[in-house]
Amino acid sequence: MASTLSTYTQEELIKKLKTQKTILFIQVFVVVLMIVFAVFSSIENGISFQTFLPLFFAPMGFVMFYEMKKIKKELTSRK
Predict the structure, then answer these.
(1) Which residues in 44-73 are b (16+ Cβ under 10 Å) and which e?
(2) pLDDT at 44 over 50
(3) 31 and 65 in contact (C-beta within 8 Å)?
(4) What 3 state SS string does the chain have?
(5) CA distance 32 to 38
(6) Whether the predicted model's global pTM rises above the 0.90 cut
(7) Which of 55, 25, 38, 16 is nearest to 6 (CA)?
(8) CB 11 within 8 A of CB 52
(9) Taking a C-beta distance cutoff of 8 angstroms, is the pair 68, 24 a contact?
(10) How far does CA 44 lie from the centroid of its chain?
(11) What is the pLDDT of residues 18-42, one digit of tens each?
(12) In angstroms, what CA-CA distances link 71 with 16, 30, 35, 61?
């Protein structure tokens, strides 16, 4: 079974990798901010829904990181 990344051209893969890196950086930054706010909110108001909110968004970062690794692997296999 062929990978869907194999249908992209070299330039498209490079562009996709750059956008993935940017989005991953922004997402990690937002999750870290959410963690900080959750800690302060828990200290002030006790445990609430906001305390666990970063746990729902963190796995998306892992998926994006895994996708970046697949894109890099595809790029290196073409060289």
Answers:
(1) eeeeeeebebbeeeeeebeebeeebeebee
(2) yes
(3) no
(4) CCCHHHHCCHHHHHHHHHHHHHHHHHHHHHHHHHHHHHHHHHHHHCCCHHHHHHHHHHHHHHHHHHHHHHHHHHHHHHC
(5) 10
(6) no
(7) 16
(8) no
(9) yes
(10) 30
(11) 999 999 999 999 999 999 999 999 9
(12) 8, 23, 29, 15
- Evaluate the CA torsion angle 70, 33, 19, 21 in order and state its sign: negative
* Distance separating alpha carbons of residues 29 and 79, to the nearest angstrom: 33
> So what's the pLDDT on residue 1?
39
